[in-house]
Amino acid sequence: MKKILTIILLLACSTIYAQQSSFKPRFSNNVSFGFGVATSNTDVAFYDDSYDDDDDTYLMGLQFDYVGLMHISPKVGLGIGTGVRQLINFEDYFDNTTTLNNYFIPLYAQARFRFMDRKVSPYLNVSLGYNFNVGSNSEDFFDDGDSYNDVKYKLESGVMGNLSGGASIRFKRNMALQVGPYLEYQRTNESFVYDNVTSEYNNDLDLFQFGLKVGFSF
Questions:
Q1: 33: exposed, middle or buried (Cβ count in 10 Å: 0-12, 13-18, 19+)
Q2: E strands of 115-157, at which residues?
Q3: Structure pTM?
Q4: Which of 217, 213, 215, 196 is nearest to 62 (CA)?
């Protein structure tokens, strides 16, 4: 019996070794799209507290990512990523809802783990880098007293980290679909500049974005 178990163990080890030894490192292109909601429990900066109706900051987040990965094993890939981020702030100023946008280009390192070398497998992406602000917008409006005001709103560049996971579905040898939730953290500063009151207000924010991401590897 011991001999039989020993033979089975040796055969299993030799099979695993053969699979690993036949693997050749390869490069893959990876694109993904994400949609989520970002929140921070820091007060929004208004020059009049009567307009601050919520202690939390809520923004809608849109993401596009490209990652170039070098697969060093059937289950592990390491690479560099970039893309585009859009954070949209919907706020009520003087009883008027306005939309304020910020755009970022991230640059980050990523490690990808595909836990089983099968057609369908759980996966996990871990990313760490920096979000660079490349644009924000201002909004013109009138308050209740017909006093003109121009609000300039900006989220500063900051350190970011991202975790995403879910199911990876391989439908050809080097092509796969990934679907699952993500969590992204960004350290930033939120600033409001009001022209007609010559004032600027700033908040340091820890933004946490939760959402769903769909990706494709080839």
A1: middle
A2: 120-136, 138-142, 148-155
A3: 0.77
A4: 213
Please give the angle made by the CA atoms of 55, 199 and 40, to the nearest 5 degrees: 25
What pLDDT, on a 0 to 100 scale, did the predictor assign at position 90? 74
| Nearest by Cα to 142 from 199, 100, 95, 99 | 95
Closest to 168 measured CA to CA, from 28, 17, 23, 13:
28
pLDDT tens-digit readout, 1-12: 555 555 555 554
Q: Which residue type sits at 110?
A: Q
Tell me the H-state helices in 81-173. none
d(CA 158, CA 100): 19
Q: Report, as ranges of residue numbers, the positions in the chain whose pLDDT lies below 50.
A: 12, 15-19, 44-54
Residue with tokens 């900066």: 45
Taking only the tens place, the pLDDT of each residue in 173-201 is: 789 999 999 999 999 988 777 665 555 66
How far is CA 1 from its chain centroid?
Answer: 54
- Residues near 21 by Cβ (< 8 Å), separated by ≥ 6? none
Question: Exposed e or buried b for every residue in 6-17, given b needs 16+ CB within 10 A?
Answer: eeeeeeeeeeee
* Rounded CA separation 136/190 (Å): 11
Spatial separation of the C-alpha atoms in residues 175 and 71, rounded to whole Å? 13
